[in-house]
Fold this sequence. Notes:
Mean pLDDT: 81
CATH architecture: 3-Layer(aba) Sandwich
CATH superfamily: Vaccinia Virus protein VP39
Strand order of the largest sheet: 2-1-3-4-6-5
Amino acid sequence: MSGLSRVMSSIRYRTDEETTEADIVYTPQGLARQLIAEVPIEEGDVLLDPFAGDDAFFANFPEGHVRDWCEIQRGRDFYRHTERCDWIITNPPFSQVNRILDHTTSLCRKGFAYLLPSFAVTTPRLRRMAHAGFNIHSIIFFDAPKAWDSFQLCWLIMHRGDASNARLLDQPSGRQTTLDVLD
C-alpha cells in the first residue's frame, strides 16, 4: 500500500471521537488574517472559533463583534457549546470533520469557514450541508505552510441560503459513452 493510500485509509476509517497528533496544527497568524478577510462578515455578527488552539483565528476576528472561542485543551469543549452564532471560523481537527459539520450546522445562523484538506470536501459532505441549509459560498485553494508538510488545503466558506454559482453535478441517468465538446 502506498503512503497516500495508508493515510487515506486511516482517515476514512477513523471514528469521530479519535484524534491524533496530526489534528493539532496551529495556523500562522498571517494566514488566519488572510483567510478571515474572505468571509462575508457583516457588522454585528457573532463569531465563534471552536478550535482556538493558539488563537490565530480568534485573535484576528474583526473588532466590533461579539467573539467567542472553544478549545478542549483549555477546558471549553465545542461539542458542549450550545450558544448560537452567525459565523464559525477555524482550522478544525481533520479527523472529526463529520461530527464537526453536524454540530456546526446546529449552531450557525449565517455560515462557517473551515480550513480543510481539499480531499475532505466530498460530495456526500456537501449534500449533507445542503440538506442542513448550507451551500458553498466559495472554496479557496492555497499551498500549505512549509512547516505543515501537508496535502493541498482549501478554505471552505459555506453560507445558509442559495447556492450562488456552485452546484453538484448529478450522476447521468443512462450510460454515457461519449463526451461532447462544445465550442
